[in-house]
Amino acid sequence: MAVYSLPKTFASAEKLDPIIERYKGFRLLSLKQSPESFGSSYEREIAFPDEIWIKRVCGPLSTNIIAVAGNSAESEGNKDQERAMLLKEEWLASLTLSGPFDKEAAVAMFKNNMWIESPSIIMDDEVEFYFGLYGMYVAPNARGAGLGVSLVEYAKEKALEIVGGKKTRLVLVVDFDNIGARRTYEKGQFVLNHDYWFDDTRCGRSQRTQSAVMRVDIGGSDNPGKDATS
User: What CDD domains does UniProt report for this protein, alphabetically (predicted)?
Assistant: First the structure.
């Protein structure tokens, strides 16, 4: 298994376009196979124009992390070889890292894009940057192999790389009763920040659902490269 972040640019569109198409296909498949895991739906996203898919892959505040079958040693960090792996190997899992945001932008992002009702509860004056994690999906044939934990650890490393090791908080939302997902995040040192109830309309639901808001602090001068969860 190898984990990569999708490239945002290549010298030519001909090299990037197949990556965007592969991402689109995997995202739509995940929505079809596990609609209960997402705040969106297959019917909504199948109608997206190309511009939205391009923005999702190439946007400056969006990093898509993909686990593929195969050996990461085959690419050795070479951009073209990573692209070849992403096009050749089966995609097994995905996760999106959104950010970085400063405190003011993070409050808006958590409320508008992650539907956190009380984003100010997550804020900390000592934290310089914030990221959101969302859209985790592991294909049915790859579950139980620890891919979720691998994606989370990669996301933490990527976030620190983006902000130069400064103190950073990663935040996510998961259904409170999704014990498997919560345990995956706990293995990545995420802790419960708070929980809330919301009107759940996913997959035609008409009920109240309890959500868990989880966070992990990483980086900073006192703890570079290590978790600083409290």
Answer: NAT_SF
